[in-house]
Amino acid sequence: MKILVCVTSVPDTTTKIAFTDNNTKLNKAGVTFITGPYDDYALARAVELKEKTGATITVLNVGEADAEPVIRKCLAIGADDAIRVNAEPTDAYFVAEQIAAIAKEANYDLILMGRESIDFNGGQVHGIVGEMLGIPSISPVMLLDIEGDTAKITREIEGGKESLEANLPLVLGCQEPIAEWKIPNMRGIMTARTKPLKVVEPTGTDKLTTVASYELPAPRGAVKMIPADEAEKLIQLLHTEAKVI
Amino acid sequence: MSVLIFAELDEGKIKKSAQEAIFYGAKVAQMLGTSATAIVIGQASDDELASAGRFGATIVLHASDAKLAEPNGMAYATVVAQAAQQEGSKIIVLAKSSLGDAMTARLAGKLKAGLAANVVELPDLSNGFRVKSSIYTGKAFAYNDLKANVKILAIKKNTITPEETDASAEVKPFSPALNDGDFAISIKSTDKSSGDILLPEADLVVSAGRGLKGPENWGIVEDLAKALHAATACSKPVSDLDWRPHSEHVGQTGLKISPNLYIACGISGAIQHLAGVNSSKVIVVINKDPDAPFFKSADYGIVGDVFDILPRLTKAVQAL
C-alpha cells in the first residue's frame, strides 16, 4: 500500500497571533512552527498502517523552505520520503492542485491529511483533491480500518457519527481519535536526516483567492464580576442587559 | 445569474443555519441587482420549501430523487453544480456544517471556484469581491479577494441575523443527472442523538470542564442547558477522558462555535479552548479559581463552586 500524507507547517496552538507590514503578513518573530495537529493524526494513522501492512509513506508539504523542520520531523516519525512543493500555501484550490499533480505521478491508495489546517481553517483541500482526481473524499475521519480494497471509516457529523465504507483510492481528512500522536525516537531522528526530501516547483494556475489584509478581533470589554452569593443576578443581566436569553 | 444558496434540511425542515445562508445570499443578490435561488435536496413539504421565500429566496429548486434521501456530500455537490450551471449562478452560498463542508470542496473542484470558508460578513464589492473570514481558529480575520469567475462562500454561524418577511418562494422541481461515482461512499449506519439541540446550530451553549470532577455530575449542566433550551458542550480533557462524546468537544481541535451565549463552567480557559469559542457573542465564566485565565476573555464572571452556582442559575432561569 502506498500512502501520501499531506502536512502543513503552522504556528503552535499557543501562539498569540500578530501581524506586520501593515497587517499583510503574519509576524513570525518568536513563533514556533509545528506540524498541523490534525495532520499529525493523519501521519500517526499512516505509520500504524505501515507497521501492520508494510505500507510506504510519502510526506508532502506545499510550503516554503522554513517548513523543512516539520517535514524532517514527519520523516523521523516514520515516513519514508518527502516532497516539498516550493510555494506559499495560501489558496485552497492552488494547494489542492499541487497535491493532485504529485498524486497523479504515483498511484497512492490513500491520501491522508488533517481535517483542516489550523492557520486558515478552510478544511477544503482534501475535497478539492478528491474532485481533481475523481476519487471519493471523506472528512473528518475519526476511525480508519483497511480490509483489502475497502476502507471502513467513522466520520464525525453534527451531534454524532456516521459509519461509511468506500473502496480505495481515497482522500481523507483526519482528526482524533484516529490514532495517538507519535513522538519521534532518537533512531528515527538520525535516519530522518538521510531520507530523501525532494523539492519541486509549483504547477498550474494562479491563485483564485488572495489575502488583502489581516485583522485581529476587537478586544472584549472588561469582565463584569458577579459575587457568588448573588449568582442569580447573572440570569437577570443576560436577560435585560446582554439580551441573549 | 442568480445567487444560488444550498439550503440544508434536517428531518424535512430547512436548518436554521440554512435560513441564515438564504438571507445572506439574498442580501448579496440585492447588492448585485439580481435574485436569490435556493436549492433544497431531499424530502420536504411544499410549504417548508416555499418558506425559503421568507428569508429572501425568489425560487426554490427542489431535488427530491429517492437516491438523494441520505445526505451525501459528493452527490449533493453534483446537484448544486448542475443547478448553478442551469441558473448561470456565479456565486454560491452555503452554511458551514459537516454536509456543507463536504460539498463546498467538491463544488470548488468542479467549478474551479474561488472559495472563502468561515465567512463572517457580507462581501465588500467596492473594489472587486472581498470577504472577511475567520482564521487562526478565531484568533484573527482575513480579508480575501476572490478572483475566480465562480465564487463560493461558506458562512459561519451568526454571520448575519435573518429578517423574515411573509414572502413565499416559487418551488420548481429539479432533476439532476447523477452517476454511480457520486455514490462511491456508502453510509452503513448513523449514530446521532435525536431531539437534542445540535451544538453547531445552538444559539445558547452551556459547557463544562474538568471542574465537574466526573461524568456522573453532568446532571447540573444538563439541567441548566434544558432550562435555557441550550446545547451542551465540553472541554478537550473531558472528551479525552470519555466523560462526554467527542462531538461535544469545543476548542482548537474540536468544534469551533459562535453562539449568542457561551457559559463555561469549571473550564480554566487555555488558549486552545478559547480558540474554539471566542467568537461567541457573550461569554460567561464560572470557576472557583479567581485566577483562571478564562475570566480575562469573559463578559460576565462568577468566582464560585459550580456545584452550588449551577442549580441556582437553573432555578433563576425557570423563574424568568
Attribute tags:
heterodimer; A: 245 residues; alpha/beta; Rossmann fold; nine-stranded mixed beta sheet; two-stranded antiparallel ribbon; 6 helices; 27% helix; B: 320 residues; seven-stranded parallel beta sheet; five-stranded parallel beta sheet; 8 helices; 26% strand
Brief characterization of the structure:
The complex is a heterodimer of chains A (245) and B (320). Chain A is α/β, with parallel strands linked by helices.
Order of strands, main sheet of chain B, comes to 7-10-6-1-4-5-11
CATH homologous superfamily (4th level) name of chain A: HUPs
Strands of chain B, total number: 17
Shape of chain A: globular
- The name of the CATH topology of the largest domain in chain B is Rossmann fold
Q: Tally the structural domains of chain B.
A: 2
- Fraction of helical residues of chain A: 25-40%
**CATH class descriptor name of chain A:** Alpha Beta
Compute the number of structural domains of chain A: 1
CATH A-level architecture of chain A = 3-Layer(aba) Sandwich
* Main sheet specs of chain B: 7 strands, parallel
Radius of gyration of chain B, CA atoms, in whole angstroms: 21 Å
Termini separation of chain A comes to 54 Å
The description of the largest β-sheet of chain A is: 9 strands, mixed
Arithmetic mean pLDDT of chain A: 95
What average pLDDT do the residues of chain B reach? 95
The radius of gyration over CA of chain A amounts to 21 Å
Question: Which two chains share the most extensive interface?
Answer: A-B, 82 and 94 residues
Number of strands of chain A: 15
